[in-house]
Amino acid sequence: MEILGTGSYLPERVISNDDLSKIVETNDEWIVSRTGIKQRRISDGETTSQMAAKAALEALNDAGVKPEEVELILLATMTGDEAMPNTACKVQQVINAVNATCLDISAACTGFVFALNTANAYLSSGMYQNALVIGADTVSKVINWSDRGTCVLFGDGAGAAFVKANSEKAYVSMTGSDGAQGDVLQAGKISLSNLLMQGEVSVEPDDYYMTMNGQKVFQFAVRKVPEVVRQVVEKAGVSMDEIDYFLLHQANVRIIASVAKRLGVPVEKMPVNLDKYGNTSAASVAILLNEVRREGKLKKGSKVVIAGFGGGLTWGASYIEL
Ligand code: UT7
C-alpha cells in the first residue's frame, strides 16, 4: 500500500488554556506542564462529516485524484454525526465520491491506525484498488465542560490519507485491544433510545459525557506504545535507527517523551503538534502525518512508524514506507 496524498482540517475557533481557566478551576501553567497543550480548536457547529470532507478533499487534491475515482472510504470516528447513515456515507455525499463503498470504524484514538490497517487488508486482497482513509472527531460534543480532568485535554479536527495498492511498498502493523479495561475511558454510555426504552427521565453527566481515569491511561500508554512500536519495527525487519519519524497519537507530551526514552530514540524523531490542537482523538495521527509531509520532512522512501492508543482499550502501530 502506498500513501499518495494527505490532508487535514482544523476548525477556526481557538480555545486557549486561559479561556478554559474561566470555566473550570485550572490554569495555563498546570495544563502546559502536565500535558504540553497550549490551545485547541473547537468546532463552532461544524460536524464530524463536514470536517472530514474538508480533510478528504485536500488529500484527494494532493494525490491528484478525482472523487469519483475513490473506491473505498473508511472513516475512523467515535463522534459520528448520527447513528445512521454512517458518517463515511455523509462524506461521500459532500465530496461526490459516487463510486465509493463507505463505512465507519470505531476505535477511539487508535481509529486512524485501525482504519489504515483495514484499508491495507482490503487493498492486499484485491477487493479494492484505492481507499480514502479519514480520522475525524468532534470530541467537544462528548466533553463534560465542567470536568477539568478531561476538558483541557481534547480538541476537534480531521485528517485524511489517500492510499493505493502497491505491493512494492511495505506496510506492516501490530495491534491489540483489552475490552476488560473499557471503563478506563468511556463516553456516551447511555443513548436517547435507551432512555426512552427504560422510561428514564434524568441523565447524569457521566452517563453521556466522557469519563477517564487519566493515570491508568497514562500508565497503559507508556507501557503499550513502546512495546507495540518495538514489535512492528522487528516484524518489518528494519532497525529502530532506520526509522525517520515516529508519528505518535498526540495526547500528552510527557507520554511522547517517555516512549522516546524507553525506545532509546531521539525525541526529535517524534514530532509534536498537540500544543496547538490538543488531543484530537482519531484525527491526531492523520493530522500530524499531513503536517510532517507538508513541511517537506518526508520524501519517497522515508520510513515512518505511526502509533495510536486509546479507549477500548485499543492500541496499534504501523510501519509505512513512503
Ligand atoms: O487518547 C487518550 C486520552 N487520554 C490520555 O491520554 C490521558 C493520559 N493521562 C494524562 O495525560 C494525565 O494523567 C493527565 C494530564 C490527565 C493528568 O495528569 P497527572 O499528572 O496524572 O495528574 P493527576 O490526575 O495525578 O492530578 C494531579 C492533581 C490533582 O489534584 P490533587 O488531587 O493532587 O489535589 C487533580 O485534581 O491535579 C489536579 N488536576 C488539575 N489541576 C488543574 C486535574 N486536572 C486539573 C486541571 N487543572 N485541568
List the helices and strands and how they pair.
Blueprint: E1 2-9, E2 14-16, H1 17-20, H2 28-35, E3 39-41, H3 48-63, E4 72-76, H4 87-95, E5 101-105, H5 111-125, E6 130-137, H6 148-151, E7 157-164, E8 171-177, E9 185-186, H7 192-198, H8 205-208, E10 211-212, H9 214-236, E11 245-248, H10 253-263, H11 274-277, H12 284-294, E12 303-310, E13 314-321
Helix pairs in contact: 3-4, 9-10
Keywords, separated by commas or semicolons:
four-stranded mixed beta sheet; 322 residues; 2 domains; five-stranded mixed beta sheet; alpha/beta; single chain
Describe the structure.
By secondary structure, this protein is of the alpha/beta class. It folds into two domains: 2-167, Thiolase/Chalcone synthase (Peroxisomal Thiolase, Chain A, domain 1, 3-Layer(aba) Sandwich), CATH 3.40.47.10; 172-321, 3-Layer(aba) Sandwich (Peroxisomal Thiolase, Chain A, domain 1). The chain is 36% helix and 22% strand. It is built from twelve helices and 13 strands. The strands form four sheets. Strands 1-7-6-4-5 form a five-stranded mixed beta sheet, with helices on both faces. It has a four-stranded mixed beta sheet with strand order 8-13-12-11, sandwiched between helices. A two-stranded antiparallel sheet has the order 2-3. Helix 3 crosses helix 4 (87-95) and helix 9 (214-236) packs parallel to helix 10 (253-263). The mean pLDDT is 95. The structure holds oxa(dethia)-CoA (UT7). Oxa(dethia)-CoA is lined by residues 26, 30-31, 34-35, 109, 148-149, 152, 212, 214-215, 217-218, 251-252, 279, 310. Oxa(dethia)-CoA (UT7) binds next to helix 2, helix 6 and helix 9.
